[in-house]
Amino acid sequence: MNQKDWNGFQPCPFSAHCLRLIDDLDSPSIAQQFEKISITQDIQDEYLLAQLRLHVPDCPTCTAVLTHARRVRSRQRAALYSLLQENESKVPSMIPQIFAAIYREQDNGLPNTKRAQYYLEELVVSPGAVTPHHNGNSNHKLVGEHQASVRSRNILRNAFSLATIAALIFAAIGIFSHVFVSSSPAVIFGPHLNTASDQSAAIHPAPLAPDRQSFSSFVIGLTVLSASSAIGMTSIYNYDAATSKKQPLGQPFAASSVQLDGITPDGQSLLLHYVSGNRVFYQAMQPGTKTASFYQLNANDRDAGNAIWMDDSHVFVAGGENGVVEVNTRTGSPVRQLPAPRTIHLAFYHTPYLYYVSGLPIQQGTWPALYRIDTTNPYQLPQRISMRSPDSTFWLSPDGGKIIYLNKGPDGKKGIYAVNADGTDSQLLRSGDAIPIGYKDNHTLIFMQEINDRFQVVQLVTAPKQKETIVMNDAAPGATSLCDHQVPSADSPICDNDIALAPLGNDLILNAYYPGGKHRLIFDDLTLNKSNILIPGLDSHTQVQLPGWDAMPVPGTGSSPTTVPANSQSSNTGPEASVSAYSPMIPARQDLCYIKPYAD
Amino acid sequence: MNVLEDEQQLTLAACQGSVEAFETLVTYYEPRIRRMLYSLTQDVQLTQDLCQDTFLAAYRALPRMNGEELRFAPWLYRIALNQVRSEWRRRKHVTMVPLLPPQGSNDETFDEPSEEYLVSEERFEEQVVVRDLVQRVLTQLPTASALCLLLDAEGFSYREIAETLQDSLSAVRSRLSRARHAFQQIYTRLDQEGRF
């Protein structure tokens, strides 16, 4: 209590207590507040409150203090409640999404007993919640339920083991393979879907996975930049890895901001887009075939973004503020418009989810992260999949179950993370600067790291036990960098967009930079541990893009498209297939890899 | 807090697996949880994520709860706040998170409340409707103090606040009293700064 008068009243030793216990003094149900007294201080407060009730009516100071305090409290509450109401209006309701999530859990067969296994101890009940001295809260029956949970897990584990053994037996006698493929809708790229109702029909055909060995060639884009304008001359070649023979894909063309977006699931087409005039043109190219752009957007509206393959004849185009449009590459017709997401960078598609990076640009204070949206229900809110991480490339595993990326953001340690494709179970696989460059198989990741000026290729097996093996000790002997330093935000000597790992993880193409500014295209045979220079002496005016490995034939090499299954129209399918298995994930990068004009 | 009619029965039914009962609870509490989360995060996307996660976590945990004793509102808010804390832990290297206490500040930073803080009431009365100023005040308060004030504004009783924050009644009384005092101090300071 201060020793001076307040508002003309004499100081009172109880007035500070009045302020602290004002709500109790005003509460008609005060007995309920103390119904479970277990702490000494609460008992003292009860005695003090009884004293104050007797004291206040005869104390003008306390009466005045309480009168003013009530008015202040009332106005604070009103202001805060007003703020809460305004804040409620700023965020769209999540009720439909919550209901949808609950229904999904029900559909996934999660009765109460199983729901309990999702018990999130950290989120729901802190350890203090089960101690009896905390407010007498006895809501949590942890011990018995934990035992029940353990029993339940054991039962499930046993059931799973039996099911696994049964599956192995079936597989061994060869009668299970077709069932397995056709009953795995999550990884099947079925025929194009116009409506959600088509989905069930789409997943019934059981197309075979394309032969990954047929992906024996790769696409290289070479752009010679002009010193005087933003226009560069771009040539695109298909190279055969074994013979180094090449075939041009179309004629060289002059354009700015050329981006090679990716290879079709069947390996037979290249998707690219470029700016010419005030238009952005989207084009699919095949060897020996003249093609023109199949779609265009207005570049001035900043609508145009990248494009990714949905299947072998449909693409998704990021249309900026107009959302995402699905386009038939054969007819050029827009098939459907997804009103959201907007202003994003498309990453990859895995039936029925479209994955994209949102939160661009980081300069505006928003951290980018990987999201996905269900294309059969585009009005659902997107799910965030990754932590917030700028300039990361996201790698979908061949079976579509996991996504790997190098986290560079603020949400966790820097390092390689694996997360389920639905955003659950995020795990740090290894910390550090190593950069994932692709998969060898579902449980084997390939990454690259710089050790003592050498670019090591390392294989990281994630299951059943995590293990690292050096595959190649130096993938680019003598090189100082695997990054085109003309590309902004290249803060590492290794850039994954300058590296293309073959689908089987045995071969590697990389763009290596040497002292003096020259760069070379290197072919590494990871099996034989051997490096070959594919294109020597590229100068700094020439920029390289490596959109990925393909199955397009190169004349005179013996490679043939016949290795691609006959039903390749919907062939990026089966438990071993995914978009990422055939593309080095250039589309999943957040920076757009645009060719920058050369300037001295 | 004003509770939903038949809330205890709905809670019991939800604990026993009734999705309909849980949906009724979601419908009633989702706007409240949403506005609380946004007040703490000032991030629409994050609020949406945390809001959905809160109700999903509640849905998954309900079968483990004793429906006859469970007070749904404090329990649900506790889940929501734990979601926020969890997010803050993940973002601990980021300085942009709202409601982080200023460096070196905690609940004890502010003087014990005395009746002096009531003197500036008239100016407060004039400005009480300025919501962005109120939001700025909140962001400068210690987190627990801001939570106390927001829960109080939502109509929570001391007991409910204590349950939500996992604290004793006495601690809640002191904290709320200090929070009101600190709110007034910061509000007055910011208001004066804004006038010059």
Characterise the protein shown here.
The complex is a heterodimer of chains A (600) and B (196). By secondary structure, chain A is α+β, with helices and mostly antiparallel strands. Chain A folds into two domains: 15-90, no CATH class; 224-557 and 576-588, 7 Propeller (Methylamine Dehydrogenase, Chain H), CATH 2.130.10.10. Helix content of chain A is 21%, strand content 29%. In chain A, strand 1 and strand 2 form a beta hairpin. Chain A is elongated and about 105 Å long. Chain A starts with 14 loop residues before the first helix and ends in an 18-residue tail after the last helix. The relative contact order of chain A is 0.11. The longest helix of chain B is centred in the last third of the chain and has 27 residues, at 169-195. Chain B is built from nine helices and no strands. Mean pLDDT of chain B is 77; it is low at 93-129. Chain B is 67% helix and 0% strand. Chain B has helices at residues 7-15, 19-41, 44-61, 72-90, 121-127, 131-140, 143-153, 158-165, 169-195. Chain B is mainly α and 196 residues long. Chain B folds into two domains: 7-90, RNA polymerase sigma factor, region 2, helix turn helix motif (Rna Polymerase Sigma Factor, Chain: A); 107-195, Arc Repressor Mutant, subunit A (Orthogonal Bundle).
List its salient traits.
heterodimer, A: 600 residues, alpha+beta, Methylamine Dehydrogenase, Chain H, 2 domains, 8-stranded antiparallel β-sheet, 4-stranded antiparallel β-sheet, 21% helix, disordered C terminus, B: 196 residues, mainly alpha, Rna Polymerase Sigma Factor, Chain: A, 9 helices, 67% helix, globular
